[in-house]
Write a structure and sequence with these properties.
By secondary structure, the protein is mainly beta. The chain has 3 domains: 2-62 and 193-242, SH3 type barrels (Roll); 95-184, SH3 type barrels (Roll), CATH 2.30.30; 248-397, Sandwich (Jelly Rolls), CATH 2.60.120.1060. It contains 3 helices and 34 strands. It is globular, with a radius of gyration of 24 Å. It starts with a helix and ends with a strand. 32% of the residues are buried.
Length: 398
């Protein structure tokens, strides 16, 4: 009786989800339990067990982003996790914060940097430059009157929600938070990161890279790759993206070679022009989402004609899968020929036109034994006008 009531309470709390497996199949139900290496899914009153290493994603249906109110710190961990918190404090090597009503702590050795303000497109280049710097000490990201962020090296002793205690070349300074865009920490981590199982994204914009996950009656419990333990309400879960050893997305691989050739070439192509037409990974041109028909893809590649991109496969994969189509924003003119070659042998060829944008083109074929995969997006009937091809969820499966 009590077990039935507990299960009922959990199913009420647990959102309806769509579960995508690495073989491309989808199932819909509610989560009964996640424990160890398996997911128990309730589908029309029947319990179905799925192995986590066979999952591509779990997506809660009907969820939308709910921005957090008030001052927010954005904590970027060295494992790639991003945690949003009310203003944090640092003392004795430990960062303390609070997400809603839930307090948490993170060791400073696990933190890359903390942002005290929202990074706008204008500020992003300054942040990128600061994060690229090689430094053995901490950094303040100082806000300049011009709007820039300048790095200042030293030692961050501690900070709270109003100021940062900073040692600059032997001089102690108390720097107001309002003068800073954030801080970058340099702490020596003595242990390696654990292997990532999945990324958990919630409705507030947090992204947790986890080595292990489990559920209780109302919460999703997470052990991050850095080792920190956190939990969020099941009602806040938006999406889980799994990193399977049996699957690899092309957008996560490093290409062996990329070459773009303009339709009309007079002299040497400038680097600036080439940059405009090189492939985009996990986004379309203009930093837009990857969209085909009514479906949006978080993984994939956007390619302009004439582009050749090749990947060296170090392991043996069996199947290539993707969904292809012309970017709807170019559908009136785009027309390309897609050719995929494995070890100098043509495996796939198809003409894809923009007027077919509402009809997604599923692609699946064997790549068993292939060691070099080459994708060619060639010109079609309309010169190179609007030739922006999207390969959604382009992946290789063992």
């Amino acid at each position: 009786m009590w077990k039935a009531l507990v299960l009922f309470a959990f199913l009420v709390q647990s959102p309806t989800v769509s579960v995508q497996t690495i073989d491309g199949n989808a199932q819909r139900g509610t989560i009964e339990k996640i424990s160890g290496s398996s997911l128990s899914l309730n589908i029309d009153g029947n319990s179905v067990d799925l192995s986590l290493d066979q999952l591509q994603s779990i997506t809660a249906t009907g969820k939308s982003i709910v921005p957090l109110k008030g001052a927010i710190d954005r904590i970027h961990l060295i494992d790639g996790s991003v945690i949003l918190s009310s203003p944090t404090s640092l003392q004795d090597g430990v960062l303390s914060g609070q997400r809603g009503d839930i307090p948490f702590t993170v060791a400073t050795a696990d933190i890359s940097h903390i942002l005290f303000l929202q990074i706008t497109p204008e500020l992003q280049p300054f942040l990128d430059d600061i994060l690229k710097l090689e430094a053995s000490s901490d950094m303040l990201m100082v806000r300049k009157p011009s709007g820039a962020l300048d790095p200042l090296e030293g030692v961050i002793k501690e900070f709270d929600d109003t100021q940062v205690a900073f040692d600059f070349d032997g001089t102690d300074l108390d720097v107001a938070r309002t003068k800073l865009g954030g801080v970058r920490l340099a702490r020596a981590r003595t242990s390696e990161l654990a292997k990532r199982l999945c990324t958990v994204k919630d409705i507030h914009g947090n992204a947790f890279n986890c080595q292990a996950i489990s559920t209780d009656d109302t919460s999703l419990k997470m052990v991050l790759a850095v080792g920190a333990e956190l939990q969020i309400p099941m009602s806040d879960v938006a999406r889980l993206e799994f990193k399977s050893s049996n699957l690899a997305y092309l957008s996560d691989l490093t290409p062996e070679n990329i070459k773009w050739t303009p339709y009309l070439s007079i002299g040497e192509v400038s680097p600036q022009l080439e940059q405009l037409y090189l492939p985009r990974f996990n986004e379309s041109y203009g930093k837009q989402p990857l969209i085909l028909g009514n479906e949006q893809f978080t993984k994939g590649i956007a390619l302009h004609s004439h582009t050749e991109i090749s990947f060296r496969l170090s392991e043996n994969y069996k199947v290539f899968q993707a969904v292809a189509g012309i970017d709807p924003r170019s559908r009136d003119h785009g027309h390309v020929e897609l050719v995929i070659i494995g070890d100098n042998k043509q495996l796939y060829r198809k003409e894809i036109a923009g007027q077919q944008s509402d009809e997604l083109t599923p692609i699946e074929f064997s790549i068993d034994g292939v060691r070099r995969l080459r994708i060619i997006v060639d010109y079609g009937d309309n010169l190179d006008i609007g030739d922006q091809l999207i390969l959604g969820n382009a992946r290789i499966i063992k």
